[in-house]
Design a protein that fits this description.
Length: about 450
């Protein structure tokens, strides 16, 4: 081995055990997943939007990218259950947020992924050392060893016993806040579904959705997307599911002739197109247009009638997203404007059709945005209802007598759906409701979109 002093005299530095270079190298996929959790927690980012940036930053593709995506998304989706399990393993439940993120990622690998226990524990300890410091590594090791000593089913029986409090059990077992479980249970019954479907609805929220494409009519034929590898859903005439592969290799998507859009959103746009309008039918309005998927489909539908869509969005950065999203819509677009939908720049009676896809709690889209369940509160719903009523009133004033408005939300919550429509109808004698539907992820394979078609009368 030789004398350390002799090595120093020869110009070769003695090894330093605590140098960063000597630390175990953390797997880039796990680093990427940790970065996503941090962005969601610290920056209020949406996982599905920040993931592509993080994957590119770490140079991840193929199986490594898929691993990081499942690790991050699954951990966020199941963090309520995982926190209950982690807390059951602690004598002092209070943890630094960064340490809890490391533990959540480790628990997901142990209980939900095909990762050997020793690998899940070892890489989590390395991640804690790299991102937090040496202090919590012993705690991370001890907690994950305890977690790995039992199966997921055994932990569920311990932290989520199925007793008299059915909603309390479902809240922990399906990883939803209790208030969300209560509101979704009320929504099922209020929209005419049996309350016994609640467990299926909550379970559907925890299934990663398939990528759904939209073939914008007049710009691309469904057959072209089928030839590229997509499969029609059999419900919306323009909806296809994508089985996998690089979407950037599909010319219609790159050129904007097709897009990625949930089938529920497509059916909302189709509801506006399907309504019968007598007389002039030239001016359509998308009142809350961001990020632009519905505007692009509406523009394609409008172009087939010789009509044009004006897309309005309150936030300028989202207006720019809309402008990019409708870049291929051509003759179907009248333009994109930035403006407050409750204080319109246009005169009353300007439009023949209007869509109000109102800002909402997003509780119908938890499959796509699992972090929303942890970010929203019951108070948010109360505040949003006021805005939703104002936006629907603005849209009804914006259409001419005989014109139609479709009010939509990606939430099934009664206060945001039928409650808003019924309240606005009760205050007006010049509006009638012609149709209403509620979609469900566990029944329709799409987000829980609500839509009501209202007609402005003379």
């Amino acid at each position: 081995m030789g004398d350390p002093a002799r090595r120093r005299r020869s110009g070769r530095p003695a090894p330093q055990r605590n140098r960063p270079a000597d630390r175990p190298r953390v797997d880039p996929s796990r680093l990427a997943a940790w970065d996503v959790l941090r962005a969601v927690r610290v920056e209020d980012a949406y996982a599905n939007l920040v993931l592509p940036q993080v994957l590119e930053k770490h140079g991840l593709t193929g199986r490594d990218a898929a691993f990081a995506t499942e690790l991050a998304s699954g951990t966020i989706r199941w963090q309520g259950l995982y926190d209950a399990i982690i807390d059951a393993c602690l004598t002092r439940p209070r943890l630094e947020a960064k340490v809890r993120d490391v533990l959540r990622l480790g628990v997901h690998q142990v209980l939900a992924m095909r990762v050997p226990d020793h690998a899940a524990i070892g890489t989590s300890v390395d991640l804690a050392r790299d991102r937090v410091g040496t202090g919590p590594t012993g705690l991370v090791n001890a907690v994950l060893r305890k977690v790995s000593s039992r199966t997921r089913e055994e932990w569920l029986a311990d932290v989520a016993p199925d007793g008299k409090d059915r909603h309390g059990h479902l809240a922990v077992a399906t990883s939803h806040p209790r208030w969300v479980v209560d509101l979704l249970g009320e929504a099922l019954v209020g929209h005419g579904r049996p309350g016994s479907e609640l467990a299926d609805l909550l379970a559907a929220d925890n299934v990663s959705p398939q990528v759904t494409l939209v073939a914008r009519p007049g710009f691309v034929e469904v057959e072209e997307l089928v030839e590229a590898g997509a499969e029609p859903t059999g419900r919306s005439p323009y909806a296809l599911t994508w089985g996998g592969g690089d979407l950037s290799t599909v010319p219609a998507l790159v050129q904007g002739r097709a897009g990625v859009q949930d089938e529920g959103s497509q059916r909302v746009a189709l509801a506006l197109d399907a309504a019968v309008v007598g007389g002039r039918d030239e001016r359509w309005l998308d009142l809350c247009a961001g990020p632009g998927g519905k505007s692009a489909l509406l523009a394609a539908l409008a172009a087939g009638r010789g009509a044009k869509v004006l897309a309005n969005e309150r936030q300028h950065h989202r207006s720019r997203l809309v402008a990019r999203g409708v870049r291929a819509a051509g003759a179907g677009m009248a333009g994109v404007v930035t403006g407050d939908g409750t204080r319109p720049a246009w005169r009353p009676g300007t439009f023949d059709r209007a869509l109000v896809d109102a800002p909402c709690s997003g509780l119908g889209a938890l499959r796509r945005r699992p972090e929303s369940r942890w970010r929203r509160t019951a108070t948010d719903v109360d505040d949003l209802v006021v805005l939703q009523r104002d936006l629907l009133t603005t849209a009804l004033d914006a259409v001419r007598p005989g014109g139609v408005v479709v009010y939509a939300t990606c939430s099934p919550v009664l206060a945001e759906t039928s409650g808003v429509v019924d309240a606005v109808l009760a205050g007006r004698d010049d509006v009638v409701e012609e149709d209403r539907f509620q979609l469900w992820p566990h029944l329709d394979g799409c987000d829980a979109m609500f839509a009501a078609t209202l007609r402005r009368m003379p």
